[in-house]
Task: structure prediction
Amino acid sequence: MVVAQGVTKRFGSVEVLKGIDLTVARGEVCCLLGPSGSGKSTFLRCVNHLERVDGGSITVDGERIGYRRRGDLLHELAEREIAVQRRDIGMVFQRFNLFPHMTALENVTEAPVRVRRLSRAAAREQAHALLDRVGLGDRAGHYPAQLSGGQQQRVAIARALAMEPKLMLFDEPTSALDPELVGEVLDVMRGLAADGMTMIVVTHEVGFAREVADTAVFMDGGVVVEAGAPRDVLDRPGQDRTRSFLAKVL
Ligand code: ADP
Ligand code: MG
Result:
């Protein structure tokens, strides 16, 4: 589903991604761990084309991000076409970014109606089902300010799912939550994984990664330090940098 090869990205003179290779098979969960500043968010943003890579390539479901193939030639996509490509990729951020003036239900129906041209009735029906799926069937009429952080984040997940993405990207989805609210969000993500969603999850939740991830990737300083089965990377890491990071977060 996702193949990144030699991805480089610089901001000014600072190279923050120094050749990232990463593969995520369809239906698999990849957890991305690493210290702050190691380039995890930048990498996710490149997958979603919120940032443009300087070198290397990323393909999602066989489509090169930012390009379209015409015969033997790759054409760079215009901004409007990039938005179309991005529809298939759901993203959930640390901050929930819900529309504050819309109810949970309206937050979830907005994009399907506007972008997927779903009828309002069909979008509402889908939104009710999605809110049920994230355990918020009884909160459809609530505004974000009337919901806890964990509930807001679950609405944000439902909103991303409403676009029927083939890939979900999570950037530290539980980092902004009070500790007692982390579990309910991780439970929803566990359910998604069990349903076969392909996911890349940036997280410091080592327990979640160990349990849910098919692949754990440890990044530091813009490179992948090690990647593999969670029981290898998280329980017997081969690299000192991984060991010292895990010692700090565990
Ligand atoms: P992580 O998510 O692992 O904490 P980031 O991808 O956010 O790391 O950041 C990697 C590096 O890139 C950091 O040094 C950060 O300061 C820098 N960086 C990220 N975004 C920008 C930007 N828009 N402009 C300049 N530097 C940036
Ligand atoms: Mg980050």
Remarks:
- The chain has a mean pLDDT of 95.
- The pocket of adenosine-5'-diphosphate (ligand 1) is lined by residues 11, 16, 34, 36-42 (CB under 6 Å).
- The longest strand covers residues 14-24.
